[in-house]
């Protein structure tokens, strides 16, 4: 980050409901760069704002190949200070400043609205993130700039998502074959269309650990990729269709292009939406099951493998000091130990150790083998013959260390 950040944040947020919002100035006449205004509000005042959900790094693997990273490389002006932001965030801000409706909105953008260099403020704001997302008018899921697949992917999702429940019931009830379904939807089943949709699921946005919480807590989600826009409900519906009907099987039978075959990435929105339904019903999630399912998701700070999920636990997690976000002076190993102890106390169950990942997956200093760290992202590996027994043997050091910490 630029050294001008020290001038941007004149005081630390209090933690009593305070957070910052960003306003982007519209583009006027000659291009004078991107100008923003950052100001402090209190959630008790019920401000109107939009949360931005996005990836700090490259939006796609192709973008990464072109040298786009999570480094801050693009200049903007904020409260008169020149600061650096990532390429993906810069692209979104350019979209906002050229859109009259979006320019009238206030945004919560974590990399700017939180002083990332102040670890105490960062921890406090992460603790408040659930209420920030829950109180937002809307969440924008920014997938990044468009590519050659975006238009057809959005078109296919929009068309499939608009099919009536009666039409879908016919497909499931009749268990129709490939030719029947192809006749039913016509040109939708082209190799290019299916590959385009698969490439959309593979965007790095859907790999972020933080989106589990961000999607679950949002009142409404608008998915934007370049100039293309979809409601999250369409994304979730198509994910459900592909998972629960024969369509995925049919598409894979019909296509002659291996690239177009739908893989398991299409299940991610359905999983995210299941948490969303649970939260909207007023039910908190249990920590261990979501930790297990979240192992496929990624974050730049391994401590966030835990912190990114805390907003799903409900109010009962607020009083558990072991789970409170702390960045300053707290190692990743300590976060994982504290989380494991809390899970064992809450559940009185050793299921945690049944999901041990073993030393082959572990590279965290001071952490014995036998912890669920999320580095073994392919959960199916635990189902291989002999794998679980081997990993359970490797879990013994972790179990002994946990016992020592619980009963010193």
TrEMBL record:
Q: Which Pfam families match?
A: HET
What is the name of this protein? Heterokaryon incompatibility protein-domain-containing protein
The UniProt record lists the Heterokaryon incompatibility domain at 49-214
Q: Which InterPro entries match?
A: HET, HetReg/Transcr_Mod
Species assigned in the record: Aspergillus tamarii
